[in-house]
Amino acid sequence: MDSKKYSLITSLLFAVIATLHLLRLLLSWEAVIGGWRVPEWFSVAAFAVAGFLSYNGFRLGIRK
C-alpha cells in the first residue's frame, strides 16, 4: 500500500471517529466504560483531535 492510500484510509477512519463523537454530543448519548461515565468534555477533545488528524490526512493524501 502506498502512502497516498494509507493517508486517505486513515483519514476516513478518523473522520468516522470524529463524526461519532460529534453525534454523541448532539444526541446526548451516554458512554460508560467499566462503570465509569465518560464526561462530555472528553468527546469535545476527541472530536477536535480526530477532526484535525482527518483534515490533515486528507490534505496529505490529496497532495501526494
Question: Could you describe the 3D structure shown?
Answer:
With 64 residues, the protein is mainly α. The protein has one domain. The protein has two helices and two strands. The chain has helices at residues 3-27, 40-63, and strands at residues 32-33, 36-37. A two-stranded antiparallel sheet has the order 1-2. Helix 1 runs antiparallel to helix 2 (40-63). The chain is elongated, with a radius of gyration of 14 Å. It starts with a helix and ends with a helix.
Summarize the topology.
Blueprint: H1 3-27, E1 32-33, E2 36-37, H2 40-63
Antiparallel strand pairs: 1-2
Helix pairs in contact: 1-2
- Overall tally of structural domains: 1
Q: What does the average pLDDT come to?
A: 95
- H/E series, N to C? HEEH
State the low-pLDDT regions, or none. none
Cross-sheet strand order for the largest sheet: 1-2
Q: Fraction of residues in helices?
A: over 70%
As a whole number of angstroms, the C-alpha radius of gyration is: 14 Å
The CA-CA distance between the termini, in Å, is 14 Å
Q: What is the 3D form? A: elongated
Instruction: Characterize the biggest β-sheet.
Output: 2 strands, antiparallel
Determine the strand fraction and express it as a percent band: 5-15%
Category from helices, strands and their pairing: mainly alpha
Number of helical stretches of at least 4 residues: 2
| Total beta strands | 2
